[in-house]
Every structure is written in C-alpha cells, then in structure tokens.
C-alpha cells in the first residue's frame, strides 16, 4: 500500500479490541466516522501504554488539576462497543503517539505504519480525533482488555502459558 494519511476528525467512536485466546490474541484499534471505518493491528503493549498514557493525559488537561474525580466521565456507548467485523486492517502499527489539541478540545491518537526492515518508503498513518470522554472509555476498556490476558509471573514479569512457564529467574524451572 502506498503512503496514505487518514484523518477521522472527529471520530464517532473508537475502541481497542482483541481476537483470539490469551497468548494468541491479535490486538486492534478501530474507529468510525460516518461510513468510514478504520482498523489497524497493534501490539498488546501498545494498547497497554496507550491506556496508561490516556489516564495521565486526561489528568493533566486544563481544569483537571491532576484529580481523578475531575477526569471526564467515560462515554457509556464506547464502553460497550465491540470490534466491527469483518476486520480489514489498513496496516500494522509501528509507532503510536498521543496528544491534545486545546483549540478543538480533542485528544489525538496518531498511529504510524510499521515498515519492513530496509523499506525506505514513507509509512502510512492515521489520526483519530477523540473527545476526552471517549478517551476515558478507551482507557478503561484498554486496561480491561490487557488485564484479561494471561497472568504474569511475579518473578520475571513474563506471561504464564496455560501449559506452564519456564522462568529465567528460577533458572528455567517450571512454575
């Protein structure tokens, strides 16, 4: 796909989602504006980082005073949203950025395409313009989505597979 830039300004909704069993899930970000639906594939760690960064950003907004009680209420419609199928992702995300446009009063998520090593073309990107309430719901849903995965080993921090876990901190002994 040649370099393309997509702007959903503003989104009607945005949702993180995953398909598959824990340990084999594929993570997505999906947003809609009118008839335009954009889906991108991302990593679990990107969803987790975006959820945490969202909370920090919302607390830092003018008027929030770093008080969790002043963070906008989540958009109830977005909390209950599911990914729309069929899933036809535009690209796999390599880099994701989060910002805030004070004039528009919108959070901006910028997802940049991951290119193969040695590919010198310009990556495609998508910009999602989201209300603070929609982002609050996105952050909550993202945290829930990540938490629904495999449990984490207390010793090494790696995910524990249902078949067991070989922890490097325990010299490879199964826990």
Question: How would you describe what is shown here?
Answer:
With 175 residues, the chain is of the alpha+beta class. It has one domain: Secreted effector protein pipB2 fold, CATH 3.30.2450. Helices cover 21% and strands 28% of the residues. The chain is built from three helices and seven strands, in the order E-E-E-E-H-H-E-E-E-H. The protein has helices spanning 44-60, 76-79, 132-147, and strands spanning 5-8, 13-19, 26-33, 36-42, 93-101, 106-113, 125-130. The chain has a four-stranded mixed β-sheet. Helix 1 packs antiparallel against helix 3. It is globular and about 55 Å long. The N and C termini lie far apart (45 Å). The model has no long low-confidence stretch (mean pLDDT 85).
Can you lay out the helices and strands and say which pair or pack?
Blueprint: E1 5-8, E2 13-19, E3 26-33, E4 36-42, H1 44-60, H2 76-79, E5 93-101, E6 106-113, E7 125-130, H3 132-147
Parallel strand pairs: 1-7
Antiparallel strand pairs: 2-3, 3-4, 5-6, 6-7
């Amino acid at each position: 796909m040649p370099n393309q830039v997509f702007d959903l300004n503003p989104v009607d909704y945005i949702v993180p989602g995953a398909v598959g069993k824990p340990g084999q899930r594929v993570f997505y970000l999906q947003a809609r504006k009118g008839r335009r639906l954009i889906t991108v594939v991302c990593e679990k760690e990107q969803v987790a980082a975006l959820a945490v960064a969202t909370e920090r950003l919302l607390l830092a907004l003018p008027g929030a005073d770093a008080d969790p009680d002043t963070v906008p209420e989540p958009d109830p419609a977005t909390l209950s949203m599911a990914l729309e199928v069929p899933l036809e992702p535009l690209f796999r995300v390599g880099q994701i950025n989060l910002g805030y446009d004070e004039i528009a009063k919108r959070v901006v998520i910028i997802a940049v395409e991951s290119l193969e090593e040695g590919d010198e073309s310009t990556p495609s990107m998508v910009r999602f313009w989201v209300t603070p309430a929609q982002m609050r719901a996105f952050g909550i849903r993202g945290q829930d989505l990540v938490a629904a995965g495999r449990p984490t080993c207390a010793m090494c921090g790696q995910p524990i597979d249902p078949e067991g876990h070989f922890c490097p901190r325990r010299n490879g002994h199964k826990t």
